[in-house]
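Structural prep section.
Before we set up the soaks we want a predicted structure of the protein with zinc ion in place, mainly to decide which crystallisation condition to try first. Input record follows.
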Amino acid sequence: MTAPHEEMACQTCLYPLNTLGMPPTYVHPTHLATDGHEPAPVPVSQLDTVRRSCDFCGDPYPIWTLHGGEVTAIAIGPTAGLVQDFGDSWAACAACQTHIDDSRNDIVIDRAVRALGLANHPHVRTRIEELHQAFLNARLAGRTLITTTTWPATTITAAELPKVRDRLTRFYRGNNNLPAALGITDTRQQIAAGLERSHLYWIDNDFTDLAEHAAGQLPDVRISRDLIPSADGILIWPRPVTHRQLTAASWTTTTHGRTIVLYRAIGGGLHGKPLQRLREQVGWLAPTSATHLPEQHLTPGDHPAAALVATWLLIAQQTADVTAARVDKAVAKTYARTNRPVPEVRIVRIRGRSSPRPDAEKMPGNPGGPQASRSWVSGHWRNQAHGPGRSLRRPVYIHPFLRGPDDAPIKLSTTVRMLSSHQSESQDDK
Ligand SMILES: [Zn+2]
Ligand SMILES: [Zn+2]
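Run finished without errors. Recording the tokens verbatim:
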């Protein structure tokens, strides 16, 4: 629901705010049960998460912004008239978008009536239909991806990574708009070209735990060329990391410098046709923010790309065991048909894990494989000298301690460690 002025959301609860009167006062939506806090309005372009819902049916995971007729409804309540400014931009969930594309607006109205719980009220359906038609009859071509939705977590496996990369590349080259606030509208073709050249990195569960823990304490870092594992790359964490809920990051050089794009996984919880359409039209990843990591600048430890920088540092300090896994036959065939070299996925694991060495042919993270449980990790960063004449300083992560799910003896010794006080400092360093 976009007003002519910039849309505002509450910084406390992340819900978009309605306006009341002129000049506007920002109020929480009437249906929202808050804890009583005052609305704290900030422009939505400053937030990477907005708890928007589908303006057609109320679904909490909208994916597209549609542009259409300006719609204003006035609800007369017991105390005052509330102007519900639906605006000329509506959020649509994957299901409503599918029905709209299929010219089944009647199903969209059914969804709205059901969501309101007013199926038996005689006039409700007619009123909703009027609102939807006022908007849709004046709909403009094109749509914009909503990148501020936090979807239920989904897992991207190593085997899926080539396809995930290809869909993302296609999305960048396609006609669907990205929010202007991301700042990559003019470089999206260059980002697509970079993705095509990218090395593909899939971080395993334990390494992800380590990287997330390390990212939380990351000191300021000077980024140098040798820290970055490849000129162009995309990296996947198999679960959302940090409070930003990131699933992937890509890096490439554009006319604006080294452009980093951070992504969230989308489509969790969807089924059937809406899911199929989303995978075809967008893929698995939505860019949630873009940033730059210029070399030799001091990058603050709380930088939006901290999880990526921590992962790079851990790989660079030889914590990682990087093995190439061959993709499965179906993917290889698809590439062969289009005369493209078969992609190689680099699996990043913690070096020296005592778990059975998976052979390089086998993709981890495939459904049906052993489920990894959460590892417990601790450690701290220390600046160490490196480079010519050891004149440079780079943070090195010291004494990470790991517990793997497939490693029973270590699990036993964890108990001992926690109970005894004479253990070495490195092991108790948590
Ligand atoms: Zn609020
Ligand atoms: Zn919907």
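Observations: Residues 1 and 391 are 54 Å apart (CA to CA).
Flagged for discussion at group meeting.
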